[in-house]
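hey so i finaly got around to running the thing on LTD domain-containing protein from Lentzea aerocolonigenes. pasting the sequence first so u can double check i didnt mess up the copy paste, my clipboard has been acting weird all day
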Amino acid sequence: MTPFLAFLLLVGTTVGTSPGVSAVKVNEISFGSAGFVELRNTGTTAADVGGWSVHTCSGGASRILGTIPPNTVLPPGEYFLIVGAAFSGTVPTGLVVDTVDGSGVITRNRHGAHTDSVGLTSSSPCREDSPAKPCADSSLGRDSASRDSDHNADDFACQIPSPGETNQ
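ok and heres what it spat out for the 3d tokens, dont ask me to read them lol
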């Protein structure tokens, strides 16, 4: 095996702490037993998110919140929801968990690579650059185009919850 091929294989399988390039973004979050994590495919092609895991962060650690079932395909522009057990909205494509808690969330692809995240505290392993500001009675979401600069403080703002719909 050539050194270059070995390098490509290593890069493609290494579990990192900085986000990889993925069109699927953590688009909106709301915490609590009625909370949710919304993922959105911002790309132009369908994304196979089967086997991806969503982690919640608390203190300096993260734990798995849920794993997306195998063969789950997210069409361009569509959403996948992970919702708390007390969530009262419609969940066309998603998972139900006890509660969405912590100080942020991380998505990891089926190989364990970090694809996107948002954190609310400077010590959260979920944050990308500066943490986003927490919201009291609303959700925390990206703009309507789901822009991602890898700076949580710039990318997320408090808004009216819109799980499974375009953010305002």
